[in-house]
Amino acid sequence: MVEQQATAPRTVPPVDVEQAEAALIEHYPRLVRLGYLVLPPALGRNRRVLTAHALVQRALPRNRVTEAELAGLAVPAPRGSSGSPGDPGYAYVRQRVLRAALEAGRPRGRWQLPKPGKLPPLLPQVWGLRLFPRSGGADELALDQALAALSGPGRAAYVLRALELPSDRDVRQALKAAGVEDPASALIEADGLRTPAGSRDASLLESMEFDPCSLQARPTDLMRRRQHGRAALAAAAAAAVCGTLLVLPGSGWGPDGAAAPPYAQNASAQQALDPAKLTRASADAWKRADRSGFAVWPARGSRTDDQALLRRALAVWARPGGGVRVTATPGTATGPAAGPPQLLYAGEVGQAAVVVFHDGLRLVRYAEARNGDTGGAALDFARADAADEDSATAVVVGRADSDVRYLTAPWVSEVSVRDLLKPGDSARPLRTAADGVTDPTISPASASDCHSWPALQMGGRLVTDLGELTPARLTTGAPGERHDVTGPAARADWAHTACHLQTMRAQGVRSVNSWSFATQPLPGGTAGSAEWLCTRAETWRGVGSRVLALFQPPGTRPGAASPPVGRAEDSPACGERDPHALSGVLWKSPGGNWYALAAGSDDVQSITASGAVQTTAPGRLLAVPAKPGSRTALTARLTDGKKLTPVQ
Prior knowledge:
- The protein is α+β, with helices and mostly antiparallel strands.
- Helices cover 23% and strands 24% of the residues.
- It is built from 15 helices and 27 strands.
- The strands form six sheets. Strands 10, 11, 13, 14, 15, 16, 17, 18, 19 and 20 form a ten-stranded mixed beta sheet that branches. Strands 3-7-6-5-4 form a five-stranded mixed beta sheet, covered by helices on one side. The chain has a four-stranded antiparallel beta sheet with strand order 24-23-26-27, with no helix packed on it.
- Strand 17 and strand 18 form a beta hairpin.
- Helix 2 crosses helix 3 and helix 7 packs across helix 9.
- The radius of gyration is 35 Å and the shape is flat.
- The relative contact order is 0.06.
């Protein structure tokens, strides 16, 4: 910032209390804004507002201020209608506000803050309301965040320079009088802060975002305030009992472990916290149900009757404390259950005690240490609405290092492990305990490479772990005709597709289908035929699909990933809503010649290339000579006359 020419210091006459009071009243909003901007951001907006008002109201001197006390104050000439008032009374009050605001951020001093967020002892309180300035725009937010990164003296230098004093000389003088040891460093720090792009001609600090005299009011936590009021009326002899009741849900339940303090006493919410009200399906419900899914799973595990464990799991679900690790698949709500959920599992998995719930829309997994220590409790959420027999085959109940354990569906009688990259190898049996929990098996979800890709074979269904509570089902076939991966040809296609599953981890994937939509004889006579595949991953939430178009040239070793030639997200391509596929690639033959290749699904009537290659080929295959690096745009015409574009 270019420093303006400083005015010569003026002789400052003594200041009467009445003069200081008049300046304080006349310029009260200006002084409060100054205190608010200089105070430590760690106080929060509500505390900063109240503190700023307190500082200004305490800035009034008790007696006449002498010339000696005024020595060193910066009292410049006014900078215009919006400049700093050239009044000794104002300068004195401003200096007291500035000093107090700076001391509030120092480790020692009469405004020392014992803990972040604690108010100074004399700060006024506003019971039942939270007060904060009105919100500004993106520029104000960016400036507020930038100011928070400065030190107290740096903030003060920036604010004084922007709102109060005409020159850096005056700023240094004011900072020194306020007790800043190195005003020059504070100015250098303020120089490093850049006003956000899009600022107005006037300083952003003059906006309503930083006006602690124009406030919004919101209530505090009404339920907690009511509880505190009741506790205040209790007799001192019953304080310990009342304190215990305040941290317990309902009346007389056991400890909640890692749960945060209760926030509501809603009747339905309380029922959802009662382990006695958990719903449980009968052992053979899945045999009689019209539609199989998680809703017909029986409650299994060695600790389904452990009321203390179930109580802790339900309480942490409703109110996860700060130490609870919470994860959720995209689009999955993490709020409490609307009513008593269904218990699917409660038992010990490795070194953890695990509880799995189902509330009709979500699967919820709670885990704590086997010995009951809730310090490392974890809570995982996943969408599971509209699950059926094909998609409700298993739930992950335990992860340790690179291993994973599953709880299998009651209709799954045999489980084996198959390496997708070795389609010719036999599946390896995986032992399953009587409660449906498998032995640990290697998970591909945590691997950084793709030397193997384990998948679970559950009868005819093939599923794989993508790092979520539910494994993704793998299928093959055209849209609307998908089926399980059972034959050698389907497994061979998946061997070239499996490594691309790495891009689909932790996306809430429900199923992945690999569709071989075309086989194309390659030009040159002896090159063989290439295969075109479209791999589509669909999610539980119905959006966020991922589509890959793959080109598989002949002679590729089994298990080698097919190179992707097209990608799309949130696209209906290769799905039941848009059961078509079109893709192209620039290919070099073994003889060194280049060709533009394209292929479409069965219903493609013709393919047109434009750009570096311009031609139209009847049917669903195109192969024309091209130059290296040629860029070609493709379109196709379907048998019904509609236009089709490639996966991209």
